[in-house]
Task: structure prediction
Amino acid sequence: MMKAQTAVEIHEVLANRRSPRSLDATAVLANENLVAILEAARWAPSASNGQPWRFFIGHRGDEVFNQILDSLVSFNQGWAHRSSALILVAGVHTREDGTPNRGFLYDCGLAVAQMVVETHHRGLVAHQMTGFDASKATENLSIDASLTPIAVIAIGKQAPAELLQGAMLERENAPRERKALEEIVIKGLPN
Result:
């Protein structure tokens, strides 16, 4: 695993986190790990403690997994079928009083971020995707109109990159890169 080249030292889980596509098609996600990953999401911060995140969880080979997999774009289907679990993240887009919840995407992102950190802390990997057909996912999973599908997360055990081919293999082996702090901090970057 290639550690990120950071400006200063950051937590090891964050510095080593990647979104691999090469996954062990035989690995099973233990219930204890799944519950911990979901528990990490449950305790994410949210505006007014609204907790708008909702999860649809499929384990490789079950109906929910296949329904989520069917909604992915073909590129993502090409590798995600080997994941131990697929989790579709949806968000409640209105508040209890019926007004729009402008922050539901932000809150759901915080929950997913905590899921990803917990996943990697447990020696597993997570790959987040927006490459899916939200309408198809809604139909396949009978998602209520009160929810907006946001992303899909593949969780599993990393396998050797060489199991992939072509562009997927190149992306798997590419160095981790991010924009420099000077490019993303508009004002207030310390010297």
In short: The first strand starts at residue 53 and ends at 59. The CA atoms of residues 58 and 64 lie 5 Å apart.
